[in-house]
Amino acid sequence: MTDGKRRRGLVAAAAVLGGVLTLAACGGGGDGGSDGNKNNAGGDKSQSQVDEAAAKDASAAHIKITPKAGATNAGINSDTKVTVAGGTLKDVTMTSAATGTKVPGSISSDGKSWKPSGQLERSTQYKISAVAEDSKGRKATENSSFTTVSPTNSFIGNFTPESGSTVGVGMPVSINFDKVISDKKAVQSGIKVTSSSGQQVVGHWFGGQRLDFRPQEYWKANSTVTLKLDLDGVEGAPGVKGVQEKTVTFKIGRSQVSTVDAEAKTMKVVRDGKPFKTIKISAGSPQNTTYNGQMVISEKFKETRMNGATVGFTDSDGKGEYDIKDVPHAMRLTTSGTFIHGNYWGAKSIFGAVNTSHGCVGLSDTKGANDPNTDGTWFYNESQIGDVVIVKNSKDETVAPDNGLNGWNMSWSEWVAGSATGA
Asked: Which of 166, 284, 377, 397 could join 251 in a cystine, given CB atoms 3.0 to 4.6 angstroms apart?
């Protein structure tokens, strides 16, 4: 190849390469490319001019989605919200990223915000797409995704009694947490229990997972109690946050307090401060005495099985000393297994005369729980969850306050001392 041909080939190659580089450049503002943007005889706009014009025509609506994009450990109650400034929301769609299931929600009447209608699921990734318009009808969009808190990093409190129920005057508000709470003050500060009677209500911690509330004296009959849980986002332990926002109410019914005299073998039922009925009973035998103290009925069963092996009463073969599959009219008084219940297997002559049970309080009854004319049936029908049964003159100790719903066996000063927020 001659020198002239070689030069012409190099120039052609350079021109091609220069064209490629010019086409790949964005914006046309460099000095080394074509000067068409500088000396544009045709009057075309530069890219910056196009961008500026587009910006001037952009919607004035600005959408904000919370939690922020990519967030983890988001709350499942009130954390999620879409808002707009300079416009109104036209459409918001929230879905589960895994299943595509749409989350119900609503835009506010003024069009300025949107939120889900209910509680979200834990450990779930959600996607949100929002559309808004400004006063000129110009559209703005925003998309985001986040993940809600996992069960490992959150706690919930299971409470009793149920919302809307009617209970006896001894029923405390009892909350059992599914995680150990180390910052008791923070958690208790997020819970409020009030009574329409105006009684002061104070919480008491039994260990790290149970918090009970009660007034100094039994609840006033026919009052209304309100429990408010405001725990969403409250850190109960390092890295473990609450997820509940809930308000529940329950009614206190008539007052019924029944006193069992283990020595006299009778039970006196007092309704609204007046004697109602006296019943003959058979309490724990001398070998298996009944707890003394104030006990609250926490469960009722028309019939239930009682097996001695489940509460430590076993024979030499490890079998239960008793196994009765159809105990009638049983009402639980302690977690450890103390009941007041009907007894059809004992002779009628034992009631009011001999204490024969393994620690329960027995009432005369018949097999099948269908005889309306027995003391067992009468007391079962006249009792409700939260009624108080007091046992006295037994040779046993006083029941532990946390063995069942039995915090009434603590003095008020002891009760208040177990509060993380004081009285």
From this structure: 166
